[in-house]
Design brief:
alpha+beta; Fructose-1,6-Bisphosphatase, Chain A, domain 1; D-Maltodextrin-Binding Protein, domain 2; six-stranded mixed β-sheet; 7 helices; 32% helix; binds 2,5-anhydro-1,6-di-O-phosphono-D-glucitol; binds manganese (II) ion
């Protein structure tokens, strides 16, 4: 049996330095605490919404706030952490003046699913950032990224740049490796999109979905990106949260730094693709901590069909 800690020790001195091992152990511990907190939340009055909204104007749930505090505490426990950036914080928070790593996280993804007992998760990304000005860099600079999904099982999915490992939390609180080298199958007849928003899709997305339905693809939409991502890790498919065609400048719904980038790194490390139109998500130069972007990722062959659609549109526009 390989535990999460064994895995980290095995890569210490090569893919991971001592500081990163300490940091990842602490992030794993935070996800154990969030997992435990979720299990008993109904008894602690931690349901419903609070009166608070975050910087993006979204109502915060008690568990959004608590998970954020647990992640922040993990950051404070690790001397190498310089800054924390979170969906639930207006701006970056300085942690240790001589730290070198910024930890960027969505403490609870899919929180609209909390009260209906559907899988939610924590998404995290780590980049080198000695000063606040270093935080806004493309996803290619991520050193590690991962997510925890809190469902029938609690799983921790990690990439240390190369390869993706999946660990499952056992009843003793130990994360045990259950997949050593996760790969996203290149082809799968399944897509995930919020079909209620189809009037706002651009032509490329609309054509892909129409063709997928006509050729017998299945649809799944959990409403927690971590859960939809985890399904894609297990059986392939494609996830789309495109921009609104009427408001393309406002981007999509999902946030670049703590949703799209970490998932993008994991997806590419597992042989999948993650794009926004003609560009890889990981190549986007960020302009703000809470910047929203359209997101399309998953099985390579499916994502390639969509990027070919965007490439054809560029050629058509050039010919006009
Ligand atoms: P969060 O709970 O962190 O705000 O993220 C929710 C996101 C994502 O998990 C999910 O895929 C998407 O919102 C669901 O959007 P719709 O409500 O439009 O389906
Ligand atoms: Mn989220
Ligand atoms: Mn969230």
């Amino acid at each position: 049996m390989t535990t999460f800690e064994n895995f980290l020790e095995g890569h210490k001195g090569s893919a991971l330095n001592d500081e990163m091992v300490v940091l990842l152990r602490e992030i794993a511990q935070a996800t154990r605490r969030i997992s435990d907190t979720l299990k008993t939340s109904a008894f602690e009055g931690l349901t419903g919404a609070t009166e608070e909204t975050n910087v993006q104007g979204e109502a915060q749930k008690p568990l959004d706030i608590l998970s954020n505090e647990i992640m922040l505490e993990a950051c404070r426990n690790v001397p190498s952490v310089s800054f924390a950036v979170s969906e639930e914080l207006d701006a970056e928070v300085a942690i240790h003046a001589d730290g070198k790593y910024a930890v960027i996280f969505d403490p609870l993804d899919g929180s609209s699913n909390l009260d209906v007992n559907v899988t939610v998760g924590t998404i995290f990304s780590v980049i080198e950032a000695a000063s606040a000005a270093d935080i806004l860099k493309s996803g290619r600079h991520q050193v590690v990224a991962g997510y925890a999904a809190y469902g029938p099982q609690t799983v921790l999915v990690l990439t240390i740049g190369k390869g993706v490992q999946i660990f499952t939390l056992n009843t003793d609180g130990t994360y045990v490796m259950t997949t050593a080298d996760a790969k996203i199958v290149p082809e799968a007849k399944e897509f995930a999109i919020n079909a209620a928003r189809r009037a706002s899709w651009d032509d490329v997305v609309a054509a892909y979905i129409e063709e997928a339905i006509d050729s017998g693809h299945n649809m799944r939409w959990v409403g927690s990106m971590v859960a939809d991502t985890h399904r894609i890790f297990n059986r392939g498919g494609v996830f789309l949260y495109p921009a609104d065609r009427n408001k393309p400048a406002s981007g999509g719904r999902l946030r670049l730094l703590y949703e799209a980038n970490p998932i993008g790194l994991l997806v590419e490390a597992a042989g999948g693709e993650a794009i926004i139109g003609n560009t890889c998500i990981l190549d986007i130069e960020p302009t703000g901590l809470h910047q929203r972007v359209p997101v399309i990722f998953g099985s390579k062959v499916e994502v390639d069909k969509i990027s070919a659609g965007y490439a054809a549109r560029v050629l058509e526009a050039a010919a006009e």
